[in-house]
């Protein structure tokens, strides 16, 4: 046996597993033979020798695993010798003979049926009855299903014997009520049908069990074919999905002739299922069989031909699903049929439907299908750029299909096929770097418990725990050095995360002066690269001239400032002194050279051979691509392009392994496309590529270069990189382009040189007017005029009529431009407030309405300013005229007003036909609030609302899914820490309302806060277990909390207890509900509210190491700035409460009586007071508790700081009502 195993290259045990049925039969025969001869060699001795040869550890193990092959042979002998042998085996196993026979009867019965004559079978069964003292029928009934399973396993090799055995089972089955004599195939199929699913499950186990030999698996597959033939289409169709699942299991075996057997099985399957049922399965069948196509092309093609060619009529509805078939010779006829149906579908289906079709196949288990689908998707995206663009930016958020597309492609970044990964990269590049905020990507599976901090990078919570430990050291340390070290590390982490707000937050909490390294990080994070490179880097290099990282940081800053020439000079100077730094600085040389279009230098830095030529990286890869393009070496260009693409797929593949993968890999997706945040490096590359072009049409080439330089200047200016913007402007100025003058004026204005900015515009416009031969675009001319008007208005450098003329010239020059009409209307509006003559006011008002209406007809850029202001002026003027008519005040002014109102009514009424309905819906609440207006021409608006009324005073706006109340979250976390306080205990601790502030503060600080420590950050760790989703969720929480805090303060939103603030479990968003307590109503409660918004210690705890510094503060400032800039729009919406005729939203105090005009409109006096207060808050005015102004208006930053201090002041929190839970 050893020689046989050695010859076959297997172990003895592996050899035994291949031959165990034959060896088992041999052993059974040998044991009986030796016992019959009364040989001294006992059965157990024989088994022990064999067990030793094949490496089994003992006889019991050997017998347990192989008795099913030995025992049936002994039973067939049905002799006293066999009985003695079975007794010896039972003793060895430590079981009774009866138990041994019962446990193995399914094997015994199957073997006897297949190997015995009728007489031998009767004898053997009588022997079994005598040995077990159980009637055969009872033995069979102990496990009927397994009896069927074992018999049918051998139907392919012993069809007649198995058929006879099944008839015997039918006779002994009391539950079977059909014909006992199963003479026809249909009768046998009806008998087996109730047990068919159990039989298929048994075959699954035979194919899946590792201990089952390959021969046994082949036997199972062949027998499955026989079963399908026996059962027929009627019964196989009912279990077709289960049969297909079983056949799929067999596809994993590719050795010897298994693929051929699989093909035969599938060939039988497709002919054993009724055609109508095959249709919906067609796509699954085809893609499942594609892996077999390479090994058995002819057999697979036969199956496809049967389905697609022979039965195309019956399956025509499903043939368009087979667009992914590979182009191979054996499938020519099949492809012809599929193409016919596919071409028709792809012509008629919409873009979104085609994308969905590709997405289904992108995640398919077969690599060929995935590759084909990705190729089709790539072509689809390239050919439908306009439709794709509309799906991405056409609405406030991207189309759900786009989110699904991005998710599928990100998952595809870790495809096992390199070709598929490369194709995924190309698709991502075509798709573009879509802002993650526009996509609905985040899904989350909360985990119950967080890991403890083990300070190991392998720990899945390492990032979170590291930040937590650093934060603890940061805030707890009294040692300045330790404090600085921990804050510096936190800063570095936030810089790596591209979180400039958090970097600023760390700087705000640093004790004393920040270190030089911290200042460099801060400058880099907020893009103050000029400050970093000219001051901080120089100082750092002076201190540590041998630290190469300082030099590298300075070069990076120079490159980001669009100063590649300075960067190259600096690097070359360094290498002259420190040649050993060559490998570390090589990529900077390459990047500087190609940005300068210095091709000779680039070729010297990237030789065709040598060690340096093997260096990799983004910059080096781009250099190689450009050199290949310059030499017009298409093959090398494609090779290097693919290489660079694949380099970017590595980080993307790693990022795709966790939640939030798109956000984590966004930096690398950006490199495959264009985005605002990274336009400058790509624009630089664009300029370099243009310089590769032939200089035949130098004028056109220079014009294109100038446009790109101009775009660089614009991008840099908008991001606050004024130095980089100036460099770009200098380059663009050399090309004498008129738009450069406009951009230069904007740069001067942002820089603070207002007079020079206006003078630049004047000079340019004067040159344009004095030189008619200049071919100037009218829109560009209008833009420059408008810019001059706006700058002159803001700086008050021109008198009103001159500014008015500029705006009118803009409208005249570009009558279809929204901006011109809006700015003219807005300026008239400003003048309206200064006019004293009522006659003149009516005329100006008509102009305002007219130009606002014109702006609405040409765009929606200013709709939230134009529409509400136009309607307010119109409706208020109409109310004035109506009141004059009621009072019968006849004068020239009154007549003029009536005439003017008629004119204005015609303008507004005309808008009903000119504007789409959705534009009016932007002012829906405003229109509804004036529904009682007396004038006949007021627009009648149908009410459409998403509110579900619950009673006269309240309704449900929306059901918010996946949210948890803050109070519920915190109480659960406290219970997990065994922190519980009953309501009675809490009431006993809280002092009465009449208690002094000192007493309340003492209870709050010394009793309540110690009982309720900060735990809210734990919820984020448990709910968002991987680092990226945790960080994103915490950032979303900080930003949404800040936005709602500022908005809530402005509108006076109160009652922010723990059940009115929710957290969203898939994104971390802070969601507020219950907006009943508005307009500072909380200050009128029995326990007046003392804080502008909720910012308790738990909410601060969840903001991260820097607390409310950083993201929260910056988001508050950003929100407040936007609201101040949009004051008119906000007040237009809020003023609807003044005229609300439907609900008395609060009982007015005696001094706040509502006034009713003659027109029937009610003016809510208290609402008017509150709106005025909101306007003051938007101006930065702080009021005392007695509603008196406190000092001069504050800046945005000053107002935000004041509000944060008020919200976190323990004296204020101590005075809050106990149900508000300021201690949580």
UniProtKB/TrEMBL annotation:
Compartment(s) of residence: Nucleus
Question: Taking every annotated instance into account, which residue ranges of this chain make up the domain FATC?
Answer: 1192-1224
Q: What is its main location?
A: nucleus
Q: Which UniProt keywords apply?
A: ATP-binding, DNA damage, DNA repair, Kinase, Nucleotide-binding, Nucleus, Serine/threonine-protein kinase, Transferase
The segment(s) forming the PI3K/PI4K catalytic domain are: 878-1193
Give the E.C. number(s). 2.7.11.1
Q: What SMART domains does this protein's entry cite?
A: FATC (SM01343), PI3Kc (SM00146), UME (SM00802)
CDD domains documented for this protein: PIKKc_ATR
First-level EC class: transferase
Which InterPro entries does its entry note? ARM-like, ARM-type_fold, DDR_Repair_Kinase, FATC_dom, Kinase-like_dom_sf, PI3/4_kinase_cat_dom, PI3/4_kinase_cat_sf, PI3/4_kinase_CS
Enumerate the spans annotated as FAT domain: 466-967
- What this protein is called in its record is Serine/threonine-protein kinase ATR
Which species is listed as the source? Priapulus caudatus (Priapulid worm)
What is the taxonomic lineage of the source species? Eukaryota, Metazoa, Ecdysozoa, Scalidophora, Priapulida
Q: Name the gene.
A: LOC106813710
């Amino acid at each position: 046996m050893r020689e046989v195993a050695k010859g076959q290259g297997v172990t003895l045990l592996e050899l035994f597993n291949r031959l165990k049925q034959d060896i088992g039969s041999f052993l059974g025969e040998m044991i009986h033979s030796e016992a019959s001869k009364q040989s001294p060699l006992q059965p157990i001795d024989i088994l022990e020798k064999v067990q030793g040869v094949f490496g089994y550890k003992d006889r019991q193990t050997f017998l347990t695993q192989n008795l099913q092959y030995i025992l049936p042979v002994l039973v067939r002998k049905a002799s006293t010798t066999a009985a003695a042998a079975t007794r010896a085996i039972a003793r060895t196993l430590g079981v009774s003979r009866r138990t041994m026979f019962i446990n193995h009867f399914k094997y015994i019965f199957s073997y006897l049926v297949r190997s015995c004559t009728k007489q031998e079978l009767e004898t053997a069964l009588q022997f079994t009855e005598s040995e077990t003292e159980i009637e055969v029928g009872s033995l069979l009934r102990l496990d009927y299903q397994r009896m069927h399973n074992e018999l049918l396993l051998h139907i392919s090799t012993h069809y007649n014997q198995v058929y006879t055995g099944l008839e015997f089972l039918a006779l002994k089955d009391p539950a079977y009520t059909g014909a006992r004599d199963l003479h026809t195939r249909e009768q046998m199929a009806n008998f087996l049908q109730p047990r068919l699913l159990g039989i298929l499950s048994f075959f699954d186990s035979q194919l899946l069990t590792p201990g089952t030999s390959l021969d046994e698996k082949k036997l199972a597959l062949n027998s499955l074919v026989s079963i399908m033939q026996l059962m027929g289409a009627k019964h196989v169709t009912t279990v077709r999905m289960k049969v297909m699942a079983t056949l799929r299991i067999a596809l994993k075996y590719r050795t010897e002739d298994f693929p051929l057997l699989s093909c035969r099985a599938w060939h039988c399957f497709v002919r054993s299922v009724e055609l109508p049922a095959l249709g919906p399965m067609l796509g699954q069948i085809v893609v499942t069989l594609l892996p077999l196509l390479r090994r058995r092309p002819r057999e697979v093609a036969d199956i496809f031909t049967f389905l697609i060619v022979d039965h195309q009529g019956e399956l025509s509805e499903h043939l368009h699903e087979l667009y992914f078939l590979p182009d191979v010779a054996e499938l020519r006829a099949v492809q012809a049929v599929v193409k016919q149906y596919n071409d028709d579908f792809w012509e008629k289906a919409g873009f979104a439907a085609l994308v969905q079709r590709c997405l289904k196949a992108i995640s398919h288990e077969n690599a060929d299908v995935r590759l084909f689908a990705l190729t089709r998707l790539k072509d689809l995206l390239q050919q439908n750029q306009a439709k794709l663009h509309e799906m991405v930016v056409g609405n406030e958020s991207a189309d759900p299909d786009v989110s699904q597309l991005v998710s599928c492609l990100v998952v595809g970044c870790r495809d096992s096929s390199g070709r598929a990964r490369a194709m995924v990269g190309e698709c991502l590049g075509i798709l573009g770097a879509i802002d993650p905020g526009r996509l609905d990507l985040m899904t989350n599976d909360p985990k119950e418990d967080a890991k403890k901090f083990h300070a190991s990078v392998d720990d899945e919570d390492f990032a979170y725990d590291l930040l937590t430990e650093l934060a603890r050291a940061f805030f707890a340390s009294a040692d300045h050095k330790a404090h600085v070290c921990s804050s510096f590390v936190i800063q570095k982490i936030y810089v790596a995360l591209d979180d400039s707000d958090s970097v600023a937050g760390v700087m705000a909490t640093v004790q004393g002066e920040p270190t030089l390294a911290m200042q460099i990080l801060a400058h880099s994070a907020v893009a103050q690269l000029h400050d970093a490179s000219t001051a901080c880097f120089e100082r750092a290099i002076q201190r540590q001239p041998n630290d190469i990282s300082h030099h590298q940081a300075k070069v990076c800053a120079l490159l980001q400032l669009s100063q590649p020439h300075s960067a190259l000079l600096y690097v070359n100077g360094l290498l002259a002194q420190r040649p050993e730094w060559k490998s570390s600085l090589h990529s900077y040389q390459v990047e500087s050279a190609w940005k300068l279009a210095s091709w000779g230098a680039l070729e010297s830095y990237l030789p065709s051979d040598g060690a340096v030529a093997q260096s990799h990286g983004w910059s080096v890869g781009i250099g190689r691509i450009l050199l290949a393009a310059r030499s017009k070496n298409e093959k090398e260009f494609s090779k290097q392009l693919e290489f660079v693409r694949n380099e970017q797929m590595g980080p993307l593949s790693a990022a795709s392994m966790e939640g939030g993968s798109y956000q984590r890999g966004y930096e690398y997706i950006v490199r495959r496309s264009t985005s605002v945040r990274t336009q400058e490096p790509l624009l630089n590359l664009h300029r370099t590529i243009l310089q590769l072009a032939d200089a035949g049409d130098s004028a056109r080439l220079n014009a294109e270069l100038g446009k790109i330089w101009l775009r660089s200047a614009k991008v840099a200016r908008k991001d606050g990189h004024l130095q980089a913007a100036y460099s770009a402007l200098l380059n663009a100025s050399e090309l004498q382009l008129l738009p450069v003058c406009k951009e230069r004026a904007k740069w001067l204005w942002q820089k603070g040189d207002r007079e020079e900015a206006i003078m630049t515009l004047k000079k340019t416009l004067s040159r344009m007017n004095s030189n008619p031969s200049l071919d100037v675009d009218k829109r560009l001319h209008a833009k420059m005029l408008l810019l001059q008007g706006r700058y002159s208005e803001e700086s008050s450098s021109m008198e009103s009529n001159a500014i008015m003329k500029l705006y009118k010239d803009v409208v005249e020059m570009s009558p279809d431009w929204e901006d011109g009409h809006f700015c003219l209307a807005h300026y008239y509006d400003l003048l309206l407030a200064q006019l004293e003559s009522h006659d003149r006011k009516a005329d100006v008002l008509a102009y305002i309405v007219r130009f606002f209406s014109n702006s609405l007809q040409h765009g929606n850029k200013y709709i939230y300013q134009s529409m509400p202001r136009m309607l307010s002026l119109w409706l208020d003027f109409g109310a004035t005229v109506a009141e004059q008519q009621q009072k019968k005040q006849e004068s020239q002014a009154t007549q003029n007003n009536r005439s003017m109102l008629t004119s204005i009514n015609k303008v507004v009424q005309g808008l009903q036909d000119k504007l789409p309905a959705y534009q009016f819906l932007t002012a829906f609440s405003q229109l509804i609030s004036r529904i009682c207006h007396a004038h006949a021409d007021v627009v009648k608006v149908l009410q459409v609302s998403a509110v579900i009324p619950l009673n006269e005073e309240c309704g449900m706006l929306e059901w918010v899914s996946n949210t948890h109340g803050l109070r519920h979250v915190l109480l659960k976390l406290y219970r997990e820490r065994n922190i519980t306080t009953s309501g009675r205990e809490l009431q006993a601790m809280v002092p009465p309302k009449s208690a002094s502030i000192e007493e309340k503060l003492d209870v709050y600080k010394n009793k309540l806060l110690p009982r309720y420590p900060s735990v809210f950050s734990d919820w984020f760790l448990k709910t968002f277990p991987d680092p990226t989703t945790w960080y994103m969720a915490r950032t979303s929480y900080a930003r949404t909390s800040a936005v709602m805090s500022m908005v809530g303060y402005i509108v006076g939103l109160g009652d922010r207890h723990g059940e009115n603030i929710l957290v969203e479990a898939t994104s971390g968003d802070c969601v507020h509900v219950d907006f009943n307590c508005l307009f500072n109503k909380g200050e009128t409660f029995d326990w007046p509210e003392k804080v502008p918004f909720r910012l308790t210690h738990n909410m601060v705890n969840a903001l991260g190491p820097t607390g409310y510094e950083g993201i929260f503060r910056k988001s508050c400032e950003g929100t407040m700035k936007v609201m101040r800039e949009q004051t008119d729009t906000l007040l237009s919406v809020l003023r609807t409460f003044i005229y609300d005729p439907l609900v008395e939203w609060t009982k007015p105090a005696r001094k706040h009586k509502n006034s009713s005009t003659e027109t029937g409109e009610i003016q809510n006096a208290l609402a008017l007071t509150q709106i005025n207060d909101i306007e003051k808050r938007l101006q930065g005015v702080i009021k005392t508790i007695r509603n008196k102004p406190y000092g001069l208006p504050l800046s945005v930053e000053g107002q935000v700081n004041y509000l944060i201090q008020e919200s976190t002041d323990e004296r204020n929190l101590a005075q809050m009502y106990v149900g508000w839970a300021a201690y949580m």
